């Protein structure tokens, strides 16, 4: 009597096993940045090349908690910049440098997406701080703006160099990405400043804007200082109200105690049950 093959035997037949070996597996992670083992500079640059992903998460967090239209526009520009990079990569189709490995995230390298991202971010940040954030009031404000602009360009330069050092891109690919990032950042800031910003009050006042609790801080000259002083003033006001409420409660309790003492002096036979009821009713009334 012939033996009927089971489901397990059918799944592990030679043809199925052979086809499974021919499958090409691909990692989902985009943060698998490689460096030469033992190279400390490469190790540091590998971590620095993850900065675009950290900035992306930071933007999502800011939008979720602040919901400012300028921040949303900034992030929208970054998304459009990345879309432009992806389109150009598939149009140009220039391969990455040959390193003897085939586990790169994408096969095309022109232009460098990391470089284009960082230079877009740095360019827009400089314009945003210089034009949008606030006017100079003292030397501290000037130093703060210079520091932020310098750090933005320094971060962009480090990420750019890391893509060459780790052999993910050629010099031409990162230069092309840097130029595109600067151009896109400049153009997008001009679009936001002169085209989109006049519509921000309408967007914030619309039913959708009110439902999503988006806000327009265009007319606030110093957003950071405004939010700091507003939150500090609100905290102090609530603290004063809390102290005042506690003081009123203490005064009311003292008045009740004195009133009870008077009642007991005039009516020595007043029962404890009546006293407890009087205290309970008076306390409930005060609350």
Structure description:
With 287 residues, this protein is an all-alpha fold. The chain has twelve helices and no strands. It has helices at residues 7-11, 14-21, 40-48, 51-65, 69-92, 113-133, 139-165, 171-196, 200-205, 207-212, 223-266, 272-286. α5 runs antiparallel to α8. The radius of gyration is 33 Å and the shape is elongated. Mean pLDDT is 76; it is low at 25-29.
- Give the percentage of residues in beta strands: under 5%
Helix content: over 70%
Category by helix and strand content? mainly alpha
Evaluate the radius of gyration: 33 Å
Shape: elongated
Largest sheet: none
Low-confidence stretches: 25-29
The arrangement of helices and strands along the chain is: HHHHHHHHHHHH
**End-to-end distance, in Å?**
89 Å
Report the strand count. 0
Mean of the pLDDT scores? 76
> If helices are DSSP runs of H or I spanning 4 or more residues, what is the number of helices?
12
Report a brief summary of the structure.
The protein has 287 residues and is mainly α. The chain has helices at residues 7-11, 14-21, 40-48, 51-65, 69-92, 113-133, 139-165, 171-196, 200-205, 207-212, 223-266, 272-286.
